[in-house]
Every structure is written in C-alpha cells, then in structure tokens.
Amino acid sequence: QQPVQSPQAVILREGEDAVINCSSSKALYSVHWYRQKHGEAPVFLMILLKGGEQKGHEKISASFNEKKQQSSLYLTASQLSYSGTYFCGTPVLTTLGRLYFGRGTQLTVWP
Amino acid sequence: EAQVTQNPRYLITVTGKKLTVTCSQNMNHEYMSWYRQDPGLGLRQIYYSMNVEVTDKGDVPEGYKVSRKEKRNFPLILESPSPNQTSLYFCASSRPQAGGLIATDTQYFGPGTRLTVL
User: Fold this and answer.
1) Contact criterion met (CB < 8 Å) for B41 and A103
2) What is the pLDDT of residues B19-62, one digit of tens each?
3) Is the link from the previous residue into B96 a cis peptide, with omega within 30 of 0?
4) From CA B12, how far away is CA A87, in angstroms rounded?
5) Interface probe with B: pick from A96, A100, A101, most Cβ of B within 10 Å
6) Would you call A29 and B102 a contact, using CB atoms and an 8 Å cutoff?
7) A33 Cβ under 8 Å from any chain B Cβ
C-alpha cells in the first residue's frame, strides 16, 4: 500500500523547475507532502484533499487527481533551501491515524 | 511551543540489552506513531495508536513493543535489540482530519533517535 514516488532523485541548478510524482494503487482520500533535510525530522508542506485541488507553499505547489490516484509536487524556480528528500504520504482509509509514506525523492539544488 | 520530544537522541547499545525510547507530545493529539527510517526504504511505520490504550501494528512491528497509558506519551520498547534494528527512529503525532475520522491531519515529527545495536 506504499505509494510510489518518481523520480528517485533530481539534481537541479538554482532557478530550475522540478516535478515529483506520487501514485497509489489504492483509492486516495487525501495526499500529504513532507520535506526532510539531512539529519532532521520530516516537516509538513501541505495536504491536498480534493480532486484537482492545488495548494501552495512558498514557490512549491501540488495537484491531486483522485481519479488517477496520483499527486504531483511542483517546485518552481528552485532555491538552495529546497534541497532535501520529499515524501508523499497517503492515509489508510480503513484505519484511523495511519499514513503510508513513499520511499522519497532526493532533491539536490546546486548554485 | 507545540512539539514532539524524543529521548534519547542517540543511543549505542549491545545485542539483547532492553531499551526504551520515550516520546511525548504537548498538542493533545489523539494519534501517535513510531516510524523507522532506513536508506532507500523511506519511513516505515512500526506501531501506531489511535488513542489511550488503543494501539496496533504497523508494517514492521517485529521486535518492538509500545504502550499508550497517557495521551501525551508513547514509548517504544525494544525488549532484546538486534543489529538489524539499527536505524533512525521517529515518533509522530497528529489529530483527525477536519470533517471525519478516517484520515489523519498533519503529522508532527519528533527530532529522531539514532540507534546503533552492536
């Protein structure tokens, strides 16, 4: 039930854009996105609740297509501070409080 | 300040020596979870708790125990640690998502405990 993230790793120059995808074989109610800096705890970015809804955090936005059971995270004009590992998380519809995380996408932004 | 605390932050121990990693949250959250993080595998849930005295296994529960006697605390117990339990451990808490109980809202993570079992 673990969602699948792609790509596994992305290397960018400052100012470039990136897209990280998250897909599930199960029906999705919502999708969470988190970012983890090296050696630190994951930090919440956003939750998407409705099909097609987009949300934003700084220059990071995301979309959620519940019909396709997938979400995409868009990083626009990447900054050095965007480097880290990005995880999507999908709640388990039948179990209170459970969240399945993908394996993560490692994003490296170079100056 | 709203936070999740874990102790210890770093621990080196030997095979078979029982240990407990504490986790405490001050946000009155119903849900609490333990995850382990290993390179390339992401965050895998060990145990989770929906509320006081209500716990259930996650995806990798073997070798671990938990208890939830108080809402704020959720300790992780390794009765007989083995080297394959060397990992980075995170505790997290959350509340039900607005509008229903079937999903979880933002997960707040503790700072992590890096455990090495020799």
Assistant:
1) yes
2) 999 999 999 999 999 999 998 888 999 999 989 999 999 999 99
3) no
4) 28
5) A96
6) yes
7) no
